[in-house]
Each structure stands twice: as C-alpha cells, then as structure tokens.
Automatic annotation (TrEMBL):
This is 5449_t:CDS:1.
Length: 50
C-alpha cells in the first residue's frame, strides 16, 4: 500500500522503483489497478512482463 500526492506517471515510476528496491529484482506476476491511465502506462514501461 502506498499514499501518493498525485497519480502522475512520475509518481508511479517512483513508486514502482521504490518497490523494486525493497523486494529486489523480482517482478510481480499480477497487479490490480483501477485502470488509471498513468498507472497502466507506467506498468507497461516499467514492468513489461506483469
């Protein structure tokens, strides 16, 4: 769970990079979202196999 000040691509990139730093290079197999466009774009570029 994370609290972000906004839902921009930059914020999601920071969030996903922070998560990878915390868990290592393990990529998530599944991610539930609310279909936010910025998050979807970031997932596609940051975690292409998710």
């Amino acid at each position: 769970m994370a609290i972000l000040s906004d839902e921009t691509k930059d914020s999601f990139e920071w969030l996903f990079q922070s998560l990878l730093n915390a868990i290592g290079e393990l990529m998530p197999y599944l991610l539930y979202t609310d279909s936010d466009l910025a998050m979807v774009m970031t997932v596609n570029s940051s975690w292409p196999k998710t």
